[in-house]
Amino acid sequence: MVTHVPAEAHGDERGALLSFVEAQRGAIRRSVLGLTEGQAASRPSAGELSLSGLLKHVAETELGWLRLAQQKPNERQRTEETWGDSFRLVEGETVPGVLAFWDEVSKETAEFIHSVPSLNDTFPLPPQPWYPKDGAVSMRWLLLHLVEEIGRHAGHADIVRESLDGKTAFELVALESGQDWG
């Protein structure tokens, strides 16, 4: 990560964790700066990843984890048949639209985390073969997992963007702030 994550107020663990989540979100958001819809949807490597697809995937993934923590139904729940659509924009979807959707999810995540009595509060994991039977995780785990998940895909986005036009994360941070890099 090429940006500085500001220190939390003394003892503000929620604020610190949310700041690290936001730093990772910023890396993916910056990956589409200055690109057309076509460029953002292109797949410059042998893999299936595009920047717009990564953007959509992390937004939907954050929503999925938020709904699990809230113990509410996920209005964008994917099935095995629709899983691939979580990695590409479909009819009527645009990069600005996905960014706006993710902004709403991000805001809701922060509001929810600030509303829970304790980061030690838990929620059940879904019944999947890769989770322990009857497993539960804490709100702290949720935030750390979002840092991990979004950060992993931010690394993918770095590679895809650099493959498209050679712009590195440093250049994108400078571009976002209206400066030149180099």
Please describe the structure with a list of short key phrases separated by commas or semicolons:
182 residues; mainly alpha; 2 strands; two-stranded antiparallel sheet
Topology:
Blueprint: H1 13-30, H2 37-41, H3 51-70, H4 95-115, E1 122-124, E2 136-138, H5 139-165, H6 169-176
Helix pairs in contact: 1-4, 1-5, 3-4, 3-5
Describe the structure.
It is a single chain. It is built from six helices and two strands; from the N terminus they run H-H-H-H-E-E-H-H. The chain has helices spanning 13-30, 37-41, 51-70, 95-115, 139-165, 169-176, and strands spanning 122-124, 136-138. A two-stranded antiparallel ribbon has the order 1-2. The two termini are 18 Å apart.
Short description:
The chain is mostly helical and 182 residues long. Helix content is 54%, strand content 3%. The chain has a two-stranded antiparallel ribbon.
Helix- and strand-based class? Answer: mainly alpha
Strand percent estimate:
under 5%
Work out the helicity level: 40-55%
| Residue-averaged pLDDT | 92
Strand order within the widest beta sheet: 1-2
The unreliable regions are: none
What gross morphology would you assign?
Answer: globular
Largest sheet entry: 2 strands, antiparallel
Tally of individual helices: 6
Order of helices and strands: HHHHEEHH
